[in-house]
Design goal:
It is built from five helices and no strands. With 157 residues, it is mainly alpha-helical. The longest helix is centred in the C-terminal third of the chain and has 67 residues.
Length: 157
């Protein structure tokens, strides 16, 4: 009886070991590495957006995961299977995440540059508005003085 238990345990252990070392079979419609980068990039942005102000997304009827899967024409199962497949090879998986990081850093620079441009434009617009408001104040004061003069003329007649 003990020999039978030992044989069963050894066959299970050896059987499991062989299945763990086998490379996984790529799923049907495997998501390309490039598209995985785009999906994970978008996931990162959505998670940041949810962290900043989740209510804005909810108020606009956006369900982040659903939006993401619709945008990339995939479903959660395909993503999970593709993610599992790529995660087997750590070098490939690291490459995907390195490309996501590069894309995030590149777009961070674009966003920072855009903010600086908007600040500059905003400052210029503020100066113009202040200048215009001074002109308008002078014009309004002139109109008030003219109106008061006309009122005085009417009252004296």
């Amino acid at each position: 009886m003990n020999k039978l238990k030992l044989i069963i345990i050894l066959s299970l252990v050896l059987g499991c070991k062989n299945s763990l070392n086998q490379e996984p079979i790529p799923p049907e419609n495997l998501i390309s590495k490039e598209k995985m980068v785009d999906i994970i990039y978008d996931m990162t942005l959505i998670n940041v957006a949810k962290g900043v102000n989740k209510s804005i997304l909810e108020n606009n009827g956006i369900i982040p995961e659903q939006y993401l899967f619709n945008k990339h024409s995939i479903d959660s199962i395909l993503f999970a299977k593709s993610n599992e497949y790529y995660s087997y090879d750590l070098k490939t998986y690291q490459t995907i995440y390195d490309n996501v990081k590069i894309k995030l850093e590149k777009n961070k620079k674009i966003i920072i540059d855009s903010i600086e441009i908007l600040k500059q434009i905003s400052g210029e617009m503020s100066k113009k508005l202040i200048k215009e408001s001074k002109k308008n104040k002078i014009l309004i004061d002139t109109i008030k003085i003219d109106s008061i003069s006309k009122i005085k003329l009417i009252n004296t007649n």
